[in-house]
Each structure stands twice: as structure tokens, then as C-alpha cells.
Amino acid sequence: MRILIRQAANLWQNRMLQAIFPTLTALLMAVAALTSAQTNAQARPEAKPAANPARDSVIRIVEQIKRADYEGDRVALKRLRGDLTPLPDNKVLASRELYWRGFALWRRAINGFNESPPPKDLEEDLNGAIADFNDSLIHDPAFVESKIGEASCFGYLAYLSMKDPARVQDMIQHSSSFLKDAMASDPDNPRLLWVLGPIRWSSPPERGGGQDKAFEVYQRGLEAVRTRPAVSDPLEPSWGEPELLMNRAWSNLHRTTPDLKAAHIDAAAALLLVPYWHYVRDILLPQIQEAQSKSR
Q: Which of 1, 20, 24, 56 is the 20 to 30 A CA-CA neighbour of 152?
């Protein structure tokens, strides 16, 4: 009887093994395949994006343009602007290249205002920048950065046209139109707020201006640029924090009741971000230091 029971048990175990063996085998094979795939994935280096020599060349030129701006190198800005030759087959890339072409002339003009006497080609630079920004918007009509740059250029043209009131009004209307579009689409854009600050500074209180309003705009811009997600594409404009600090330093120096300590702090902070900035290092900071020495 015991032998029969043992034989029955052995038979039952054999049948169970036969039943589960295929499933167990399949499971082990799946685990082995998964482990092999994971090992191969770890062994293979992560695929790199395809090289794009044309885009890489544009990025290198853009970095040189930004440095030449801070260094006040107007000769380099004009040359580098000419080195950017947008290709129409890629609308987004062409739009960004044209923005940086306009940026180079825009900043070439701004740097020229710091020279004494001012160069005679400021208006030519500003008009050239406007043409580039316009072309950028043809390729990407929603690109707010070109609208901001163009608005600023028209503002500077208005300043250069002070002897012609009709032309001043025409330039202001063009500038206001672009600013209105930019404020509607990206009201906290740090570069927009950098452009708006001087407008608030020089506008009367009944038109929403005044020195305090300008400081509010700069503070808002600094908060925005410090809290926005980092920009990973070097062709997308991300500048603004040093410029906002510089504007606020200038404003603290020239406000009705100067705050020279605050002016010095902001100028030093801007230089910490851009140590080679010619205007802040060689012009603005010495002016602040001179005012401090006279106030003692």
C-alpha cells in the first residue's frame, strides 16, 4: 500500500513538473533576454544628435557677437553681422540668424552712443537692424524678440530725430506698435522690461511714467530672468540680467535723490556676470565712484 502511495505521489510530481516546465523555461528565457538587452544598452554609449555644421557655425558667430557687444567692439559687430548669411530653407533658423544680425547692429548703435563724439553711422546701424528684425519676423511672425529689438531701434531713431517733431512722432508710433504686440504676448519678458524701463523713466506720471515706475520695471525684469527656466538653445535670446542691473545702476546714479551705494552694488553685480563689459567697467562704474568721492 505504501509503495502504491509513493508511486502515485511520484507520478503526480512528474506530471506537475511536465506542466510547469515549459512555463518556467519561457520565464527564464525572458529574464535572460531582458538582462542581455539591459547589459547591451548600458554597454552602448548614448546616441548623440546628428552633427549640424551650419548651425554650429551660427552659434559660434552669435557667441562672438555677444562678446563684441559687451566689449564695445563696434568694428567686430559690423564684421560678425556680415558673417551671418541666413538660408531660407529653414525658417526658424533663418529667423534666429536674422535676429542676431539685427542685434549686432542694434548694439553697435548703442555702443556708439557711449562714444564722444557719437559716430555718424548710428542712424544707418539702427535702420539696418530694423531691416534685419523685419526679415526675422517674415520667417517667424510670432517671434517676440525681434519685435522688442525693433521697438528699441525706433525709440533710438526718435531720439536722433529730436529736431524733427513729425519724424519723432512717426518713430514713436512704430516703436509703440511693436511694444504693444510684445507686451500682449510676453509681458514678463526680461528683455522687453529692459527696453520699457527707460521709457517709464522719461515719461510723465500722468502717462504711467516716473522714476519709481522705472525701478519697478527693472525689479520685475530681474525677478523674471532669475525665475524663468534656463534656455538650452544658444540661438534663443536669454540675455537680460546684466543689462537690467546696469540700467538700475545708472538710474540710481541719476535719480532725483541718488542712491550711490545701490548704484555701486548693481554695477559690481553686472560686472560679476560680465567682467569684460566695457561700458560698466570703464564708464559707468568710474562715474559712480567719482560721485561717491564727491559726496564724502
A: 56
Q: How far apart are CA 238 and CA 96, in angstroms?
A: 13
Helix (H, G, I), strand (E, B) or coil at 188: coil
Please check whether residues 155 and 240 belong to one and the same domain: no
pLDDT tens per residue, range 20-76: 334 434 433 443 444 444 444 444 444 455 678 889 999 999 999 999 999 999 999
Number of domains in the chain: 2
Whether residue 173 is found in the same domain as residue 193: no
Give the CATH number, domain containing residue 130: 1.25.40
- Do 141 and 224 have their domain in common? no
Shared domain check, 68 and 180 = yes
Using omega within 30 degrees of 0 as the cis cutoff, is the peptide bond preceding 117 cis? yes
Long-range contacts of 268-277 (CB under 8 A, 24+ apart): 269/245, 270/242, 270/243, 270/245, 270/246, 273/241, 273/242, 273/245, 274/70, 274/242, 276/67, 276/70, 276/71, 277/70, 277/71, 277/242, 277/246
* Residues 90-120 pLDDT 10s: 899 999 999 999 999 999 999 999 998 889 9
